[in-house]
């Protein structure tokens, strides 16, 4: 860990790495950054099928947070799959000090999206409601390892900055409040908060 609170997850590859999927997840840190709070997270999914420098992705993840003056831990995982068809995924997790998470996560994501836009220069496009609901359902199901079919849609709100949806799981005692930001061909943001009802 350096003086800014940054911790290298073990991968600092400046060479381009082909990836089918790139995700950068921000979450509140628990256990001194050794784990993240599973009940709240913001995920930026970056378009796959590209050549990405892992070093550059690490750098923009760091630069999205450290200027904000909060303690954080970054972990990077590159997974290669050669089971029939080859594939790769890059997953970066940024665990932000829990007491600062709500205050800085929006700024951190905005800084990350700005860095991506400088490199790729995509135009923002509105999110289609049906696509957003399906996307949110899949992200929640994947993150919490539940069946997407078991997530009942109970509320949708179509706003100017994105779409908010609420799902219930099981008997309704667990709700997932999800915000989907405006998307570009390169990146989409999903913010989720799991809430226990009752």
Feature tags:
nine-stranded mixed β-sheet, 198 residues, 43% strand, 3 helices, two-stranded antiparallel ribbon, globular
Low-confidence stretches: 1-13
The class by helix and strand makeup works out as: alpha+beta
| Approximate strand percentage | 35-45%
Instruction: Write down the Rg.
Output: 17 Å
- Biggest sheet layout: 9 strands, mixed
pLDDT average, as an integer? Answer: 82
What is the total tally of β strands?
11
Order of helices and strands: EEEEEHEEHHEEEE
Count of helix runs? 3
Distance between the termini: 41 Å
Approximate helicity band:
25-40%
- What is the subunit organization of this protein? single chain
Instruction: Indicate the overall shape.
Output: globular
Report what the structure shows.
There is one protein chain. This protein has helices spanning 54-65, 98-120, 129-144, and strands at 16-19, 21-30, 35-36, 40-46, 50-53, 72-83, 85-97, 151-158, 162-169, 174-181, 187-196. Residues 1-13 have low confidence and may be disordered. A hairpin with a 1-residue loop joins strand 6 and strand 7 (85-97). With 198 residues, it is α+β, with helices and mostly antiparallel strands. The radius of gyration is 17 Å and the shape is globular. Helix 1 packs across helix 2.
Give a short overview.
Helix content is 26%, strand content 43%. It is α+β, with helices and mostly antiparallel strands and 198 residues long. Strands 2, 3, 4, 6, 7, 8, 9, 10 and 11 form a 9-stranded mixed beta sheet that branches.
